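We now fix the convention by which a protein and its fold are recorded. The integers have meaning only within a learned vocabulary of local backbone shapes. A record is reproduced here so that you can trace the correspondence yourselves:
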Amino acid sequence: MDIDFTRLRYFVAVADELHFKRAADKLMITPPPLSKQIKLLEKELGGPLFERGYHDVRLSPLGERLIGPAREILRQVEEFKATAKHGVQGPAPLRLSATAYAPSDLLAQLETVLTDLPVPTEFGVPGSGTEVAAKLIAGQAELGLIHLPAGDKRLRHKVVASYQGAVAVRFDDPLAAKDLVAIEELLDREVVIDFARPNPVVLAGLTRQLNSRGVHRIVRTTNQRGGELEMATAVFNRHLVALVSYAPDSFIGKMFSPPEFKLVPIDESNWPPARIALAWAPERLRSRLTEVEQAAEQIADRLGPVHRGA
């Protein structure tokens, strides 16, 4: 039996998403050819890989048995390609993907550190931490910069930065007169946490933290990357309180600076700092695991550790 590696890749993508449209988007194709290739693969294998319901898609018993071997075959194919490329072109680059929601000054510092590493590197900022984690699990990056907690237990991580929390308010807001804010002072305020929305795990954790302190009036101003100006406009016009990291030198910190705004740190004695980490997926690295873990240590050493606070 000859198995098409492309069909295997399609099978894994649908298994990851359990949704044909999302899998097609991830593969950058349309759903009809994806569905056709899955059906051809099922015909070759002699049984259905998925149980298709009206609203959901699940792995069939056959799919459950084959998804592990399929991932391993694709990993070996990628490793074979990397080995061949290494033999022809030299060492494979260390690919690092970073969440676009990390403070911009940390991203700039990270990019500088990467240029000084003794191995070739490729740096990219694909989007949210969830997208970065997906790249790590898919073997499309060796290292990723993400906010903790990580939503996938297959990832290991090393903390490289922590940021004290802060509130961003209008210049004439009562909180703007303070040097330090306690979370309890937000009980009767409408609070924006839109920076966490692209990462469901971080969003859920932050929402639980606020709710446990009695802060329940959480409002949405934007739900997309690049909505910072939209959020700042809403904070200004509606007298909202934006919960952000205390990073005055970042793009966000400068946007929420005087004269229109004030960035006020949150008392760390009862509100934990945001943690940012380098993450990697050991099962995807295999022969490069030691190299990548050493690179993570080198990057962490050269970055600091970074702690931003008032």
Summary: The chain has a mean pLDDT of 89. The first strand starts at residue 50 and ends at 52. The CA atoms of residues 17 and 154 lie 16 Å apart.
